[in-house]
Specification:
Blueprint: H1 2-7, E1 22-30, E2 39-48, E3 53-60, H2 70-73, H3 77-80, H4 86-97, E4 101-104, H5 107-120, E5 129-132, H6 133-140, H7 149-155, H8 166-187, E6 193-195, E7 251-255, H9 262-271, E8 275-276, E9 286-289, H10 297-305, E10 309-310, H11 312-319
Parallel strand pairs: 1-4, 4-5, 7-8, 7-9, 9-10
Antiparallel strand pairs: 1-2, 2-3, 5-6
């Protein structure tokens, strides 16, 4: 039904004027899911404003380390030995993204992996917004049994030939995105666009491979492994009051992209005596986000609870003068 309704959108006067003018459907295969893992292959399907394919591109990438779960992506050290380094393909990759909205399945993962690779070569990809097809399928109310790519593909009758092969995954996603986009246009749905903020400050951790997060499923979780921190030794003094200082023990949550790598920001907050909150509740003192209108669960709950919100730059200034906890 959604596909029938989507194909009815043909006249330019029916197409939402606020929709982007082009998309780059991306898939990357990686050595794992942790923040120190590397891209080993990448594919981009460029689409026009209505989701029609313009061209596609694919490359292997030598990660300069072991390739990780070969049984999933099939790329061995021997296959990758003569592949170009990311620095060698960065310019071509950027040309494929330039001026387009990056589209991916669990786009936060693909974007963070791409952003880190560009940070390593002291550059930034020319993309400012991303669209997650999981979020779009939720907005459209698609009756999917789960949020895997194969379920989205099956819903639209797209045949997947080589799962976990970047080029085929990007093709499948491009073919499933087109009817999704048309359905959204036909219904006047606002696309779930989020800001892509390149990394300007980051760190390369040294973590033993056996301690890294697993690689289970296709983009099923966060791009970062969970990290246990010691409990904050200070009581929660309550909400942050705009114009005043932060106080040790305040519960701070983060949402969305930051120019400084999230883990570095969290480390600095912990060093200042703050508590890192992984979700928003009535006890949360402050939400840090550069995109308060993004519609993420944290920003929505912050509005519901009246939780104060500041951006990354303001938070950085507040961290410089945190009030000690009460004796």
């Amino acid at each position: 039904m959604l596909e029938d309704r989507a194909t009815a959108v043909s006249s330019p006067t029916q197409w939402p004027a606020a929709y982007p003018q082009g998309y780059a459907v991306v898939d990357v295969e990686t050595t794992g899911l942790a923040r120190d893992d590397r891209i080993i292959s990448a594919a981009v399907y460029r689409l026009d404003a209505r989701g029609e394919v313009e061209d596609h591109w694919y490359t292997l990438v030598n990660p300069e380390r072991d390739p990780g779960p070969v049984w999933i992506h099939g790329l061995t050290s021997e296959v990758l030995a003569d592949a170009p380094l990311f620095a060698d393909v960065a310019e071509e990759f950027a040309a494929r993204l330039d001026g387009r909205v990056l589209v991916a399945h669990n786009a936060a993962f693909d974007w963070q992996m791409i952003a880190r690779e560009y940070a390593r070569v002291r550059s930034a990809p020319p993309v400012r917004q991303r669209l997650c097809t999981i979020a779009l399928s939720k907005q459209l109310g698609l009756p999917l049994p789960n949020h895997r790519l194969e379920s989205l593909a099956a819903h639209f009758g797209v045949v997947q030939q080589r799962a976990h092969h970047a080029l085929d995954d990007a093709r499948v996603l491009a073919e499933a995105f087109r009817p999704s986009l048309r359905a959204a246009a036909a219904s006047g749905v606002r696309l779930p666009l989020l800001e892509c903020r390149p990394l300007t400050e980051w760190s390369e951790p040294s973590v033993p491979r056996q301690a890294r997060a697993g690689y289970g499923g296709h983009r099923s979780g966060s791009w970062r492994p969970s990290r246990k921190r010691p409990a904050c030794p200070y009581p929660n003094p309550g909400r942050y009051e705009p114009g005043k200082r932060l106080k040790q023990g305040m519960r701070v949550a983060f949402s969305g992209d930051t120019s400084t790598e999230r883990e570095l920001l969290e480390d600095r907050a912990v060093e200042a005596g703050l508590h890192i909150a992984t979700s928003i509740s009535r006890l949360t003192s402050l939400l840090v986000t550069n995109d308060p209108d993004s519609g993420t669960s944290k920003t929505v709950k912050a509005r519901q609870y009246g939780t104060p919100v500041v951006d990354e730059a303001a938070f950085g200034q507040l961290l410089g003068d945190v009030e000690p906890a009460d004796a």
